[in-house]
Amino acid sequence: MLLTKSFKSKKEALKQSIIYVFCPDECVNNIAEIINEHSFNLVINDYSIVDFTEKVICHYRSAHLTKEQREYLVNATECGAWVEPLVSYLDDRLKYTEVRLLHSSYFLHQKAFSILSNKRTQITKRTIDIISAILLLIITLPLSVIAALFIKLESPGDILYRQNRTGQYNKEFKVYKFRSMRNDAEKNGAQWASENDARVTKIGKFIRKTRIDEIPQLINVLQGTMSIVGPRPEREIFIKDLEKAIPYYRFRHAVKPGVTGLAQVSYPYGASVEDAIWKHKYDIHYIKHHSSMLDIKILLLTIKTVMFGMGR
């Protein structure tokens, strides 16, 4: 089946609804199951195609294809097809990374991860972190004072909550938050927080919804253990379980954790393995496609949430 409109740019190519995928035979069922969850028409391993005009061709685990099959993809590129890895193509279409399709080669192109390899990018990000943290601490000072007062009045215990989290390069650090739960919240051991958690205080519900409880993490940003934008830091006790269920879960520790992140402004609150999988999709996408403009966009969306109470 041929598409009637030719594409002149990648943007136009991404509008096409048919994906021609070429992969090892043992991957066919998995790819079909995943792609069928989205609004794409899928054609897999059709090597009879000779007219490559106006076609988007994706490959998956191409290193495991035969020499003849790889030559077929090279010929498709020569003949005008848009050819790229399936995971990268879906990244552009879905705006998150389909982690069920991740494999090692996705991470083996260091230049594709500018946030990891570009020193200028890292310096710019750190500069934005410091300036933003100072400004936000000043702007949110009235909210912090009010929150601290109500926390102290409602329940006994410290105003600030300190907890070990895993940060960049898997190093643990203490994260700071306004206490939103009872002082004995973990008397029975560590457990996931839920949306309607009975351990959360009245003021805790409000500051969690508006993310005011995250404001003290700006101190972590100034200390250098966190960034303004990045994957949210998790506890090691949960990470050990999550990495068994989520492919390449620890790759999120290649960057500093963030006070806010793409997952936080793109996905509603959740505290289950399924929710962690979805957040990981956005975290990997953020690391791969990081830019200063994306950081600023995420920061502005977060400020809107804090200032106007539009928590999700």
UniProtKB/TrEMBL annotation:
<keyword id="KW-0472">Membrane</keyword>
<dbReference type="InterPro" id="IPR003362">
    <property type="entry name" value="Bact_transf"/>
</dbReference>
<keyword id="KW-0812">Transmembrane</keyword>
<protein>
    <submittedName>
        <fullName>Exopolysaccharide biosynthesis polyprenyl glycosylphosphotransferase</fullName>
    </submittedName>
</protein>
<feature type="transmembrane region" description="Helical">
    <location>
        <begin position="130"/>
        <end position="151"/>
    </location>
</feature>
<dbReference type="InterPro" id="IPR017475">
    <property type="entry name" value="EPS_sugar_tfrase"/>
</dbReference>
<dbReference type="GO" id="GO:0016020">
    <property type="term" value="C:membrane"/>
</dbReference>
<comment type="similarity">
    <text>Belongs to the bacterial sugar transferase family.</text>
</comment>
<keyword id="KW-0808">Transferase</keyword>
<feature type="domain" description="Bacterial sugar transferase">
    <location>
        <begin position="125"/>
        <end position="307"/>
    </location>
</feature>
<keyword id="KW-1133">Transmembrane helix</keyword>
<dbReference type="GO" id="GO:0016780">
    <property type="term" value="F:phosphotransferase activity, for other substituted phosphate groups"/>
</dbReference>
<dbReference type="Pfam" id="PF02397">
    <property type="entry name" value="Bac_transf"/>
</dbReference>
